[in-house]
Structures are given as C-alpha cells and as structure tokens.
Prior knowledge:
The complex is a heterodimer. Chain A is an all-alpha fold. Chain A contains 7 helices and no strands. In chain A, α1 packs antiparallel against α7 (207-251) and α4 packs antiparallel against α5. The longest helix of chain A has 45 residues, at 207-251. Chain A is globular and about 75 Å long. Chain A starts with 8 loop residues before the first helix and ends with a helix. By secondary structure, chain B is mainly α. Chain B has a domain at 27-59. In chain B, 75% of the residues lie in helices and 0% in strands. The termini of chain B are far apart. The chains are: A mainly alpha, B mainly alpha. Chain A binds chain B through residues 10, 39, 49-51, 53-54, 57-58, 61, 96-97, 100, 103-104, 107-108, 111-112, 114-115, 223, 227, 230-231, 233-234, 237-238, 240-241, 243-245, 247-248, 251, and chain B through 1, 3-7, 9-10, 12-14, 16-17, 20-21, 23-25, 27-28, 31-32, 35-36, 38-39, 42-43, 45, 47-49, 51.
Amino acid sequence: MALIDLANPSRFLAFAGRVLPWLYGVTAVAFALTCYRLFTISLAPYEQRQTIEIMFIHVPTAWLGMFGWAAMSVAALGTLVWRHPLADVAAKATAPVGAAFTFVCFVTGWLWGRASWAGGGNLPLEYMVLDARLSSVLMLLIQYLVVIALVRTIEDPARAARAAAILTLAGAVILPIIKFSVEWREGQYTLHQTSSVFVSGGPKLDTPILVTLLISTVAFTLLFVTLQVAAMRNEILRRRVRSLRLMYADERPA
Amino acid sequence: MNLGEHAGFIIGSYAVAVVVVILLFAWVALDFHAQRRILADLEGRGLTRRSQRTEEGNP
C-alpha cells in the first residue's frame, strides 16, 4: 500500500486496525526497556544526579509537545490549501495528545526547576520559577487548549477546521520562541540550560545518560504515534456517526 | 535506588506522567467503544453510508 493511499479515511481505518496492536506492543517493549535503564543506570558520579531522573520524562515530552504543534501546522496547510478531510482529522486528533505531552513537560519542568533552582514561596504560583523556557511552554499549552476549545465551540466541522487551521499556523511562531528562549539573552530571562543533545561538536551528555534519554525518547515517540493513530481512528468514526445522524434526520418524515 | 532529598519532585514528576498516560489511553479506548456502539446502533436501524450501499450492490 502506498503512503498516499492512507489519505482515504476508509483505508486509514483498515490500516489503523492492523497497525495499532503492533504499536501497543512495541510501545510497551520500549517503555519496559526505559524502566530497565532507569533502574540500572548509575547516576552517582553526577552533580545533580537525583534531578537527572526527571530529564528522562521532561525532555521527550518537551520535544513531542513541540512536534505535535508542528504536525498540526502541516495538517493545517493540508486543510487550508488542499481541503483534505484527513488533514483536519489529523489536526483535531493531535491537539489533545500534544496538549497532554506539553502539560507533562510543563509540570516536570516546574518541579525540576523548583528542585534545581530553588527560590519561590509555598503557594503554587510562588512555588514556580517561571523562566523564559517554562513560560513559553506554558504558552504552548494554552494554545493547545484554545484550539481544542475553538473546535468544540464551532458546530460546523468545516468552519471549525478552517478556524483552527488559521490559529494553528499563527501559533506556530511559539516553536522558535521555545527553541531559542534559552539562547536569546541567556542568563537574563532564563535559568534553563542550553541544548545538550543537538549541539555542534556532539552531545554534551555522558553516554549512559544519552543512551537512556534516547531510549526514553523512542518510547515516548511510539506512545505519541500510537495515541495519535487511535485518536484519528476515533475521529473518523465520529464523523461517520455525524453523517449517519444527519442522513437519519433527513430521511425521517417531517 | 536512592532518590535523596529530591524524592518528592522525582516521584511527583513520574506520577504526573503515569496518570496523564493512563487518562489518554482511557480517553481513546472509551471514545472508540462509544463511537462503535453508536455506529452499530445507527446501522441496526438500516442506516448505511452511500459508499457502503454501492459496495453491497444496493444503490
């Protein structure tokens, strides 16, 4: 089956039915491997050894939270330019998954920041050390929630899709802001460290930590893809329910 | 595994991740079963999509 064939909703449903059991299995294996690494890795030689544990959740969810919005932006182009129904399905299904990953990234970043940077009081907001990176991730989370709310507010799916697509493309400006928030005016508005993995000259992390982080990233990526495919299947079924209900309403005698 | 003085932060982070993942799986599973049930109910009333009618030779 060519990749383009999956752009047909019926074919995508058949594909999802076949591929989802495998995705569930591979994701479970990847997380089992991640847990094994977490329990066996020795962090004793590292300065911030305890809080490094948080990195194995925080970093993959950060990447995937941003990846989710980038994927929605590509889907938004598909909706606006080619008016492809599956593009809108993909965008709508990705939003809650991306929001959930961004939420985990934000909460773990907040806890990690509190543990590493200290500061703040005892109330929830005082407890938070809001630096430029954490604030921009919070903005991304709010954007996800706004898109979800917008799609639910507009009754006509085609109008909702177009409005959400425009908002998604406009909101994509947050991605470079998140990426460069730790590099622009470093030290003035952020306590967050600069990139440690994708840097010129190779990763700054030691091999055991880097390997665990990469395994954890693969596991979270598989989880993201699994949930996205499952959510897209649900969305296609929801649209079929809607069209059958409309047909039922039309066929009933007045 | 000694989590040291930051145990609360680490356990809190992992707990949030686990709860969110469980909620996501529950959401997709419950939604899938709900949509399948509604579709079966509508099809039980004789409603089918046009493409399905054509496939069944019933234009």
